[in-house]
Specification:
Shape: globular
Helix content: 40-55%
Number of strands: 5
Order of helices and strands: HHEHHHEHHEHEHEH
Oligomer: single chain
Structural class: alpha/beta
CATH class of the largest domain: Alpha Beta
Number of domains: 2
């Protein structure tokens, strides 16, 4: 067990039963990024905000600096002598992640023209490629639009990851790894979700960007 995971369990002893699944999620994410994959994330309400938060931690430096590889720096400087160094100094290494909740055009169009509960599923169908992961966040584990996204992800052969509550709901059976916060109250579940995904992001970042 990593030190990050140990610290999480020290802070939230109630997450001790989930630590095996948290480590499995870390391993799943590392394998995804090693194979050139990306993370597709969906959820509703507070969980939608969590989707945006996760993208913010993965697509730029979280705890660590993420300088560009030397070859990428060279390409920028060679292509744009006047500004290449500035570009290289102000770009950071990224772990590709897309929040499906913030794309108002496709969300509004698909909800109006087809079916609101299929919006995330349509995005997974459009974006998903072998090696990607669908991460569904639902405190109940039963959010229909999240369930459908996971179903389509599985049909496409993508890995599926879930953050949910005590029962796991329908999500539990659809996820390769389902991390369950052991509570029924939404606020308690979301508090644990925040701590869990911070550990996921930090652990993956450390794997790829530690010097």
């Amino acid at each position: 067990m990593s030190r990050l995971l140990e610290q999480l369990v020290e802070r939230y002893p109630d997450l001790q039963p989930a630590q095996v699944d948290i480590q499995a999620a870390i391993d799943l994410l590392i394998n995804c990024y090693r194979s050139g994959g990306k993370l597709l994330i969906c959820g509703n309400g507070g969980s939608a905000a969590d989707c945006e938060h996760i993208v913010g931690e993965l697509m730029k430096g979280f705890f660590l600096k993420r300088p560009l590889p030397v070859e990428m720096r060279r390409r920028l400087i060679d292509a744009f002598p006047a500004e290449g160094e500035y570009l290289a100094d102000h770009l950071q290494g990224a772990l590709p992640a897309i929040s499906l909740v913030s794309q108002s055009g496709i969300i509004s169009a698909f909800s109006n023209d087809v079916a609101a509960e299929m919006v995330f599923a349509q995005q997974v169908y459009g974006y998903g490629q072998p090696g990607d992961i669908v991460l569904g966040i639902s405190t109940s584990g039963n959010s229909k639009n999240v369930i459908h996204a996971l179903q389509v992800g599985r049909a496409l052969g993508l890995s599926t990851l879930g953050l949910t509550g005590e029962s796991g709901g329908q999500m539990k059976a659809l996820c390769d790894v389902a991390i369950r916060a052991p509570f029924a109250r939404v606020d308690a579940i979301q508090e644990r979700h925040l701590a869990i995904y911070h550990v996921l992001c930090a652990a993956v970042e450390a794997t790829f960007f530690s010097t």
